[in-house]
Design a protein that fits this description.
Layout: H1 11-33, E1 37-40, E2 43-46, H2 49-66, H3 68-94, H4 104-111, H5 115-142, H6 148-174, H7 182-202, H8 204-214, H9 216-222
Helix pairs in contact: 1-2, 1-3, 2-3, 2-5, 2-8, 3-4, 3-5, 5-6, 6-7, 6-8, 8-9
Amino acid sequence: MSETEHPSLPAIEFKFLILLSVFISCMSFINVVSAKLWSFAGLTISGGIMAYWLTFPITDVVGEIFGRKRAFFVVWMGLLANVIVLSLSQIAIQLPPAAIYQDQESLAKVLGAVPVIVLASLLAYLVAQMHDVWAFDFWRRRTGGKHLWLRNNLSTIVSQLLDSLVFNGIAFYLFAAERMPLSAFVAMTLGYWLFKLVIALIDTPVVYLLVAWLQPKKAQAAG
């Protein structure tokens, strides 16, 4: 879509809105599919990882092109989307089902929110994403805006560890109805982190593609 078709909206801002929409869509999707669990290499993983991995390269790219404040804005919009979807989901569950609707129990199981899990999810998201934006900006200043691949990975790797620590710590250890043994908590957290670590390494090409899409010259300079 050319810039002349949107005279009041510069092309790069239009592209930012696309990234913001994708980010918010991912956060909304996570709330719907997180109840789906699947197995990989002995780990039980939430279906939300399908979309969550994409949120980190988006905030890194926004921070690279638009700066830290804009990246923080994206994070807060993601949190707002989380809260809205969770709230509306609970309202939908509480609405009296029609006589012909036979899936109320299934709907409640899928969209029902356990308070501890909700708290763990929101705090883990906020801590991990805020750290990712801060760390990416920190390494950006340290490297003089060069080595995009290094900045992307350094910020994301630590952020993913924080995400696993906060979520698992709150949901399954500190405030769980039945606290799991410390050894099991450590094993699960490290397992999740290693899985996310592989994804973080794989998403580096995505970061370069998005930066090139927004500002081709910037992608060449940051390499």
